[in-house]
Design goal:
single chain; mainly beta; two-stranded parallel ribbon; 1 helix; elongated
């Protein structure tokens, strides 16, 4: 959740896992005031074979995508 203090740290175990049952990581929560840019490093999960979904646009308009 974007608005949580520990949001970026929540991805750390996902980055380290070798468990093939972990297939995706999602960024959700309120968009206004919590830009997805803060979580740019999380897109690196894709290099580790983890899919990433990001909720954007529905809460803060097109500019937030």
């Amino acid at each position: 959740m974007r608005d949580r203090r520990f949001a970026a740290q929540a991805a750390e175990p996902v980055q380290r896992t070798t468990d093939t049952r972990v297939v995706a990581f999602d960024l959700g929560g309120p968009e206004t005031g919590y830009s997805a840019r803060r979580f740019r490093d999380l897109f690196g999960l894709r290099r580790a074979g983890i899919h990433v979904t990001i909720h954007a646009g529905e809460g803060d308009g097109m500019a937030s995508i």
